[in-house]
Amino acid sequence: MSAAEAVPPALLRQIGGLAVELAALAGREMKREIGRSPAVRYKPGGGGSLRDPVSEVDQAVEAEIRARLAERFPDHDVLGEESAERPARGARFLWAVDPVDGTANYINGFPLFAGSIGVLLDGAPVAGAVWCATSHDLRAGVYHAIQGGALHFEGQPMQPLHNPEVRRRLAGFVDASPRSPQGWEARRTGSAAIECAFVAAGLLEVARFERPNTWDVAGGFALVRAAGGAIRVLGEAGWQPFDRFEGDPGPWRRPVILGQPEAVERLCREP
After folding, report:
1. Which of 157, 179, 195 is the last residue of a domain?
2. What is the rounded end-to-end Cα distance, in angstroms, of the chain?
3. N or C: which end of the chain has fewer CB within 10 A?
4. How far, in Å, are 37, 80, 90, 133, 237 from residue 99 at the CA level?
């Protein structure tokens, strides 16, 4: 029995609807504050690193999302980027929240950032909603899906884009340089959540992440699966199909490849 089969359909739809609502909330707040020069601090890092910024918007949005989840699903756990609080550690349902993914882009006004909500049941993604500052439709909006359902954008079902005339597709790689795997035009967006959403929508054929956090990709995993994509994670036995976040999703950090199944298979064979 899959994780979704263990959830009453009405409850799964309710969870999916709330995920969309919360992702849209994050998007509204980002748009409202982007021109107001929000306060920024940097997380502690070696050598005075300035590579991990946090804006006041990140913190305020996560606090609001947590408050709404406490009202609607007080027995569900929450794993967020900006707060270590786990209100129901060990609960079967866990909401993985990244209020602003791509904060460095956001604070610089570079329009590639996202708000990501992923819902896990016993570690398996069953719903995802990712608000993106831009999209296949050249506008901001929420990509969303529940397990067993289709990929949607702003409430409308969609098929991943594919132009058979394009012979060299785009791919999301950490190292967008001539050293990147051959066969793709490499792109770096600075947001794992956006890259997951863009893979689901067909804008990227494949993407690789070196050690993402659960909140970076949980929502996107649900989107990629709904779009018919494949997800693999690197373990001791090599690249294995992803089923669920094993153990506590909090410290989970594994290399990931996701995308069109044939592209994932090919990239997994790269040295």
Report:
1. 157
2. 36
3. C
4. 17, 8, 22, 13, 34
pTM of the model: 0.93
| pLDDT at 47 > cutoff 80 | no
DSSP state letters, 161-227: P--TT--SEEEE-SS-STTSPTTEEEE--S-HHHHHHHHHHTSSSEEEESS--HHHHHHHHHHHHHT
* 17 is a domain residue: yes
The annotation status of 81 as a binding-site residue, yes or no, is yes
Token couple for 208:
């690789």
Residues 22 and 123 in one domain: yes
265 is in an annotated binding site: no
Domain count, the chain: 2
Residue 122 assigned ligand-binding role: no
Asked whether residue 101 is marked as a ligand-binding residue, the answer is yes
C-alpha distances in Å from residue 78, one per residue of 63, 105, 123, 206 = 11, 25, 12, 29
Answer for the pair 190, 102: CB distance below 8 angstroms, yes or no.
yes
